Amino acid sequence: MRSACLASALLHGLATAAPDPGPTPDPVPDPSSLTVIPERASAGIGQDLYLEVVLNGNPTRKIAHFMRDGERLRASAATLRELGFRLKGREGDASLDLREIAGTSFRYDEERQRVEIDAPADQLDQATSVLNATVAVVPEPQASPGALLNYDLYGTRDQHDALGLSAFAELRLFNAWGVLSTTALSRVTDSPGSGWGADSMRLDTTFSHSFVDRALTLRIGDAVSGNLSWTRATRFGGIQLQRNFALQPDLVTFPVPAFYGQATLPSTVDLYINGLKQYSSPVPAGPFQLNTVPIVNGNGQAQVVITDAMGRQNTLDFSFYTANQLLRSGLSDFSFEAGYVRKGYGVTSFSYAHDPAASGSWRYGLTDWLTVESHAEASAGLANAGAGAVLGVGRAGIVNLALAGSRDHGDDGTQAQLGYTWRNDHFNFSLDSTRTFGGYRDVAAAFGRAPPRRSDRALAGVMLGRAGSLGVSYVEQRYPGEERTRFASGYYFLALGRRCSFSLSANQNLDDHRDRSVFAGLTFSFDDNRSLGLSAQHDANGNTVVVDANRPINPDGGYGWRVRAEDGSNGHGGQAEVGYRAEQVQLLAGIENRDDETRAYADAAGALVFMDGQLFASRRIDDAFAVVSANGVGGLPVLLENRPIGTTDARGDLLVTPLNAYQRNKLSIDPMQLPADVRIDRVDAQVTPSDRAGMLVRFGVETVRAASIVLHDANGKPLPVGSLVSLAGKPASATAVGYDGVVYLEGLADHNTLAVQTPTGTCSVGFDYRAPAHTVPVIGPLACTGSPR
């Protein structure tokens, strides 16, 4: 929530005139950078002076007209107003002695022809300096034509020779217009006595295009409708226009505190959030506004420390509350869609409702403490609409409320919601309750379960520092025609040093005392990312003990493994698994036994990318990526954000994954690792790909046919320094000879003739060139013959 805190204590504390600091070592300003204030009225009688003005230690870059009469310095009221003085109660353009303005003092620097004026802040109208202002820079994303296939192949075989195979696939076609994607799942089974069986189903097919500058995404095909905290989403096929803040990752969507203060002298402002320094900046004399993005979500404490040019400090303490449920003032969020509701998702491929449906959700930051919401949806015989609000109540937390109504074929109903949330670094609490009355229905109810009659939720948690953390929760739900369900749960977590932790949780059905579960676990961490877990669980079926040791696969590549053993009333068994993540694929294989039933399984997941006429194999790609092209030069090291990411292959290409969509990603080639016979147009590139698409990045790498030629004259002496050498047929390529008769030439052919212009005449020489690998050869010495004089 925005906090407008005027630092009146700072204003009075720093308003007294500062002692004369003496001459400052500031350089003499460039006269062209100064503005002359036009003389609008006489300043009085005395010596005419045109002086550069320094106000409260800040160069104004202005020259003003003054009249000096002994120790007095006068200026017209118009001039003083131009400099920023308020001059309350003084009308017209009569001249004023600077000493007549309360609390004002001055120092006339005759040598520099300037006047240094110190005035209290309440006598000035100064522009507010905005610190840490966010500048929304939206880079233009790019996408090159290409195709991508993500795949996940999974197979099992049990001790009875029953075989199961499944394949998930995602095909994407992309270019600058957008991304067309489709997903499908296929399964094959072979059971003794039943034979082979197979089925396949399409999941989603969607074309999407994003308008980055407006943070909008248009989808055509299968999608999920937008929803609010008090509405339900549905799968549909049709068209959707939706606000997408992910297109502008630097955009802060929720209100953040702004701290206001006043500095009488040039100062330094330091901001601390919960004791941690977050920002520091110089600020000129005058009012300032400090914008910041706190590192907390909830209640926090801020300190603004102001150190003036004299070394004096003033500290201001502020409390604030931030909540990402609120929208920043003037910001809107929405989703509008129309189409046909999807039925039997994951079961059938093309099953949609017969009647069309439409829905829309909209949120707007009316102020920094109030966000209003609305939602409407309709289908055949059904209409539903409602409104809500999210309200920030100072540092007391967030209140959300909503009211909606519906009519389903003449049957009316209503829904009401009320919630409250508060949190800080040590405690969090939330309470949420939703009720429906009458025949309340929404579009989702026409194809599935009706909304619950009652849905209540309460959560509370506390951080105890070294003593750990604990929390409790309560959930109650009641659906039409069903019995209510109520559950209470709690957890406790304690870190026992850096390598060990303990956790305890319990869950109780309040309507069935026998439905209870208790879990206790102890986890040990070791080097090389290995861990060991010991756990015990009690539920209605009895007790179970589990031992689990594992080393997860590193996301950057490598191997991992897991060994697990379980014994108790819920069954007994074990599992052993090993995996490996390479650049081209991730493999997993294992065997598990449970209650004397054994099953082996294997999995392979990865991606195939077709771009720039090449096919690349890769790990699964869920975000953006790039293909780096070195124009056929292989073995070049490529860096992502200055971190080695791979080397170009024999074709001079490298697939780089993953990149951050809609953000600048730095790709570069280490020039120190380039072969001697390679030239490159640029060594780094800032690329901004669109999401789920790839872009081609060319670095302009070129292999050059070059050599260092040693040239001598007919007497075996090196040609003079500065002699001009050119390849026959290329006179524009003339190059000067260096010391010892050496000249460096590029663009050589298999046979070359050189024409040389020496200070005493001309000569020529011919030679053959055979390009060695990754080096620049030295050829010669060669005798340059001709008729030098």
TrEMBL record:
Pfam families recorded: PapC_C, Usher
GO molecular function: fimbrial usher porin activity
Record's keyword terms, sorted: Signal
Range of residues in the leader sequence: 1-17
Domain PapC-like C-terminal: 709-769
Domain of life, per lineage: Bacteria
GO biological process, one term: pilus assembly
Record-level GO cellular component terms: cell outer membrane
PANTHER family membership: OUTER MEMBRANE USHER PROTEIN, SLR0019 PROTEIN
Protein name: Outer membrane usher protein
Species this chain originates from: Dokdonella fugitiva
